[in-house]
């Protein structure tokens, strides 16, 4: 048994170290992610359990923006 790529990416949001950001970028390139599904998983599965909602919401948005930027180039 293993985490699906979306759940794996969500586990890396809160810590937000450089290696976690790189891991999310790698997953986004190799899966590739449906960003709406990633956001929905965050909102329904992870966000209700977080303590710093503004920070975690911003982190998710920054990761999504970075993925979109990479896809655009």
Topology, element by element:
Blueprint: H1 5-11, H2 18-30, H3 35-46, H4 53-72
Give an overview in words.
The protein is mainly α and 73 residues long. The protein has one domain (5-72). The protein is 71% helix and 0% strand. The protein has 4 helices and no strands. It has helices at residues 5-11, 18-30, 35-46, 53-72. It is globular, with a radius of gyration of 11 Å. It starts with a helix and ends with a helix. 15% of the residues are buried. The model has no long low-confidence stretch (mean pLDDT 94).
Mean pLDDT: 94
Structural class: mainly alpha
Number of helices: 4
Helix residue percentage: over 70%
Query: How far do the termini sit from each other?
Result: 35 Å
Question: Low-confidence parts, pLDDT < 50 over ≥5 residues?
Answer: none
Global morphology: globular
Query: What percentage of the residues does DSSP assign to strands (E)?
Result: under 5%
Order of helices and strands: HHHH
Number of strands: 0
Largest sheet: none
How many whole angstroms does the radius of gyration measure?
Answer: 11 Å
Descriptors:
single chain; 73 residues; mainly alpha; 0% strand; globular
Q: What's a concise summary of this model?
A:
The protein is mainly alpha-helical. The chain contains four helices and no strands.
């Amino acid at each position: 048994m293993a985490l699906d790529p979306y759940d794996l990416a969500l586990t890396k949001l809160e810590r937000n170290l450089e290696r976690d950001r790189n891991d999310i970028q790698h997953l986004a390139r190799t899966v590739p992610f449906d960003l709406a599904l990633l956001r929905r998983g965050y909102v329904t599965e992870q966000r209700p359990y977080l303590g710093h909602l503004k920070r975690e919401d911003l982190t998710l948005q920054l990761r999504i923006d970075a993925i979109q930027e990479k896809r655009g180039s």
